[in-house]
Design brief:
Helix content is 31%, strand content 17%. The chain starts with a helix and ends in a 6-residue tail after the last strand. The relative contact order is 0.12. The structure holds CU2-O2 cluster. CU2-O2 cluster binds next to helix 9 and helix 15.
Length: 700
C-alpha cells in the first residue's frame, strides 16, 4: 500500500475496538500495527514479542508505527480509564482541550498517528475517542478519513445490554458474518406504559438522534484550541440546534397527547420525571445510574467537581439582567451590546458556556452546570461511588425526559432575548414581485392524496460488530425499530413578476393545536415551528415550479450516512487505491455524521391524522447571501441548517430560524402569511399507522 493508504488505514484502525490495546489485530483480523516495544504499557511490556506475533502474523496489512518522543500524559490520566468521561464539567473539558491541542501539534501525519496510538492505550477510551475524532476532523492532513458512527464505537451507550450477550454468542459461534442471525433489539425497554413519558421513548432513545447530538458537539466543541472552537456563529448554532430539538420534542408530545415539556426553572422543586436508563457505560460495564421520580437536585460536592444550586441561580439572574439591559459586560468591564446581529451568538457562547464566553466569572457556566447538577442528583457527594447519569454524557443525554426540561429552560432565555428585538419589518419579510402561489406535499407513490403524509415503524439493521471489544470479528447486525415516514415531495408554485433573480425557499411545519386539540397562540406556534428544509431557488420571469424531495432536506442526513461508515465502492477487499472522487466522498462522511436523522424528519402525527400548517417562504436572496471567504468545496452541505459548513461561514445571512425567531404581531399564521405575497401555507395531515415495515435494501 502507498504511504497515503497506509496512513488512512492506520487512522481508521485507531477508531476501532476502543478498549483493546493497540497491538491487537483490527479490521476483522486483517490488519495490525507494528508497535514499537516502548509503546507497550507496563502490563504487556515483558511479553511484547509474543503479542506481536500472536496478533500480527496472519494479517494482510501490517502498519509500522514510528517511535516518538513520549509525551507527558499526567494531565490526562487524571481521568481513570474506567471512569466515565463527560464534557459538561470543567475538569474533563479542560483535559480534553489540552489533549486536542496535543493532537493538533505534530507537523506530519505519521507522527500524529504514532502519538495517537501511544496515547490510546494510556488514557480514558471515551476521552481518547472524543479528542481523536476532533483532531482527525480538524487536521488538514487527515481530512480524507471518515469518523465512524459513535454507536459503532461505543454501542453500549446506545443499545440495551442484553443485545450484546446475544451478539457475542452469535459472533463467536458463527464465524462467517454472512451466516449470522440478526439480533433483535427491544423497543420500549426502559419503562412500561404506566409511565406516560414512555410515549416519547421512541424519540428520546432513538439511536440516530443521540448520534446526531454527539456529532454536533464533536463538530462544535466548547473547549480546545481556538482553531477548533472559534467557528462562525457557533454560539447562535448552539441556541438554534437545541431550540429546534425542543420544538420538535414538544410537537412530538402533542402528537402523543402530552403537554409540552415544563421548563426546569425551579431548581429546588422535586423532579417528578424518573428515568431508569438500563444501558451500560461502555467503559466500566456498570449501568448508568437511575433517577427516581421525585428526586431533588442537591449541591454537588465531589473531588474536582463542586457546584452549588445558588451559584447556578445567580448566573441565570445575571444573564436575565444582561438581556433586560441589552448588553453584557466583558472581563474588562466593557459593555458589549446584545444587538440584532451579534447578540444571539454572544449569548449562545455565554450561556452554554463555551471557551468563547465574554465573561466566565460573571455569567458562569449555566447550561453545562445544569447538566452536571442533574446528572449527579442521585449521589452528589459520591458517597455511593456512583457515576454520572445519562444527562452528563452527550452520547446519552437526550434519552432522559429531564434533558428537554433543562433545555426548555435554556431555550426560554434565548427566546426572551429574541422577543425583545423589534419584529421584522416588511422589507425583511417581503420580496417584491414574488408570489408563492401554492405549496403542497405528496407521498412519492402511486395513488396518494396530496397533503396527506404518513408515518409508521420501520426495522433497520445496524452493525454493532466493530464495538464488540475482545469479541468476535466481523459484522454482527442488530435490528432496531424506529419511526419512519413515507418519502414525499414538495410542489411549490411561484410567480415572479420581475427579472431573473434568486431567493431562498424556507419550509417549516407548524403545529396548529396542542395536546388537547386547543388552538395554539401565534407566540407558541413560532416557537414550535419545525424547520424542514431550506434551499436556494433561481426565479425566472413568469411562473416557476419547484419540486423537491423530502430526502434532500437541509436539516437531515440519510440513514446510510448516520449508520454506515464506508462507501459501498470501497468495501471490497483487497482495498484498491481510492480514486480522488472516493477520497472526496470519504472526506464528506467525516463531517456529515452531523445532521438530524432523516427517519425523524416528520413528527409522528396520530392515528386519525393530525393537522399541521406547512409554511413556505421565499426570501430575497440579496438579504440571505453569504460571501464565503474561501472557495474550498462544500463538504457536507446537506445538513447545513443544524451543522453549518466545514471550514466555511454559515451559509445563510439571516438569523437562524428566520422568520420565526422574532416576535410576530399577527394573531395567526394565516394572517401573518396573508400579508406577504412571498409566503404561503397549506394544511397537511400526518397519519400514523401502528405497523412495522422492514427496510428495503434501497430507498430513493
Ligand atoms: Cu447538547 Cu445540553 O447541549 O446537551
Amino acid at each position: 500500500m502507498s504511504n497515503q493508504n497506509n496512513d488512512i488505514k492506520a487512522l481508521e484502525l485507531l477508531f476501532q475496538r476502543p478498549l483493546e490495546p493497540v497491538f491487537t489485530s483490527r479490521d476483522n483480523g486483517k490488519a495490525a500495527f507494528d508497535v514499537p516495544d516502548t509503546f507497550l504499557t507496563e502490563r504487556y511490556s515483558g511479553v511484547g514479542v509474543e503479542l506481536q506475533s500472536r496478533f500480527g502474523d496472519d494479517v494482510d496489512v501490517r502498519i509500522p508505527l514510528r517511535d516518538i518522543t513520549k509525551p507527558n500524559l499526567d494531565f490526562a490520566t487524571q481521568i481513570g480509564r474506567k471512569e466515565n468521561f463527560y464534557i459538561f464539567i470543567d475538569k474533563h473539558k479542560r483535559i480534553a482541550g489540552q489533549l486536542i491541542k496535543m493532537f493538533l501539534e505534530p507537523k506530519d501525519r505519521s507522527t500524529f498517528i504514532s502519538l495517537a496510538a501511544y496515547v490510546k492505550d494510556r488514557v480514558n477510551p471515551m476521552l481518547f475517542q472524543y479528542c481523536y475524532a476532533i483532531a482527525v476532523s480538524h487536521r488538514k492532513d487527515t481530512a480524507m478519513v471518515a469518523i465512524p458512527p459513535i454507536a459503532e464505537i461505543f454501542p453500549a451507550n446506545f443499545v440495551e445490554p442484553s443485545v450484546f450477550r446475544d451478539a457475542r454468542t452469535e459472533g463467536s459461534l458463527i464465524t462467517n458474518p454472512g451466516d449470522r442471525m440478526t439480533i433483535d433489539m427491544s423497543q420500549n425497554f426502559t419503562a412500561s406504559d404506566r409511565e406516560e413519558e414512555q410515549r416519547l421513548a421512541y424519540f428520546r432513545e432513538d439511536i440516530g438522534i443521540n448520534m446526531h447530538h454527539w456529532h454536533w458537539h464533536l463538530v462544535y466543541p466548547g473547549e480546545g484550541p481556538d482553531e477548533v472552537v472559534r467557528k462562525d456563529r457557533r454560539g447562535e448554532l448552539f441556541y438554534y440546534m437545541h431550540h429546534q430539538i425542543i420544538a420538535r420534542y414538544n410537537v412530538e408530545r402533542f402528537c402523543n397527547g402530552l403537554p409540552r415539556a415544563r421548563l426546569l426553572n425551579n431548581l429546588r422543586e422535586a423532579i417528578p420525571q424518573g428515568y431508569f436508563p438500563k444501558i451500560l457505560s461502555s467503559l466500566n460495564n456498570r449501568t448508568f445510574p437511575a433517577r427516581i421520580a421525585g428526586q431533588s437536585l442537591r449541591n454537588v460536592e465531589r473531588v474536582d467537581n463542586t457546584i452549588e444550586i445558588t451559584e447556578v441561580e445567580r448566573w441565570a439572574d445575571r444573564i436575565h439582567q444582561a438581556i433586560d439591559q441589552g448588553y453584557v459586560v466583558d472581563r474588562n468591564n466593557k459593555q458589549i451590546p446584545l444587538d440584532e446581529v451579534r447578540g444571539i451568538d454572544i449569548l449562545g457562547d455565554l450561556i452554554e458556556a463555551s471557551a468563547l464566553t465574554v465573561n466566565r466569572q460573571l455569567y458562569g457556566n449555566l447550561h453545562n452546570m445544569g447538566h452536571n447538577l442533574i446528572s449527579l442528583a442521585h449521589d452528589p457527594d459520591a458517597r455511593f461511588r456512583e457515576d454520572i447519569s445519562v444527562m452528563g454524557d452527550v452520547t446519552t443525554a437526550m434519552r432522559d425526559p429531564i434533558f428537554y426540561r433543562w433545555h426548555s429552560f435554556i431555550d426560554q432565555i434565548f427566546t426572551k432575548f429574541k422577543d425583545l428585538l423589534p419584529a421584522y419589518d416588511n422589507n425583511q419579510l417581503g420580496f417584491n414581485g414574488v408570489s408563492v402561489d401554492s405549496v403542497a406535499v405528496q407521498i412519492r407513490a402511486k395513488g396518494t392524496t396530496p397533503n396527506i403524509l404518513a408515518t409508521y415503524w420501520q426495522n433497520s439493521d445496524i452493525d454493532i460488530g466493530a464495538g464488540l471489544d475482545f469479541g468476535p470479528n466481523g459484522a454482527v447486525f442488530a435490528k432496531y425499530t424506529h419511526l419512519q415516514y413515507a418519502p414525499f415531495s414538495y410542489d411549490i408554485r411561484v410567480t415572479n413578476s420581475g427579472a431573473n433573480r434568486r431567493g431562498t425557499c424556507r419550509i417549516f411545519i407548524c403545529p396548529k393545536t396542542d395536546e388537547r386539540g386547543a388552538a395554539l397562540r401565534m407566540a407558541d406556534i413560532k416557537n414550535m415551528a419545525i424547520e424542514l428544509d431550506k434551499f436556494t431557488v433561481n426565479l425566472k420571469p413568469g411562473s416557476n415550479t419547484f419540486n423537491r424531495k423530502s430526502s434532500e432536506s437541509s436539516v437531515t442526513i440519510p440513514f446510510e450516512r448516520s449508520f454506515r461508515r464506508t462507501i459501498p465502492s470501497m468495501q471490497q477487499q483487497p482495498r484498491q487505491q481510492p480514486t480522488q472522487a472516493e477520497l472526496d466522498e470519504l472526506a464528506q462522511f467525516r463531517f456529515c455524521g452531523c445532521g438530524w436523522p432523516d427517519h425523524m424528519l416528520l413528527p409522528k402525527g396520530n392515528a386519525t391524522g393530525m393537522e399541521f400548517d406547512l409554511y413556505c417562504m421565499i426570501s430575497d436572496y440579496t438579504g440571505d447571501e453569504v460571501k464565503q471567504t474561501n472557495d474550498s468545496p462544500n463538504i457536507c452541505g446537506d445538513a447545513d441548517s443544524f451543522c453549518g459548513l466545514k471550514d466555511k461561514l454559515y451559509p445563510d445571512k439571516r438569523a437562524m430560524g428566520f422568520p420565526f425567531d422574532r416576535q410576530i404581531t399577527s394573531t395567526s399564521l394565516g394572517e401573518f402569511s396573508n400579508q406577504y405575497s412571498n409566503m404561503a401555507i397549506t394544511t397537511v395531515k400526518i397519519l400514523f399507522s401502528n405497523k412495522t415495515i422492514n427496510r428495503q435494501k434501497t430507498r430513493d
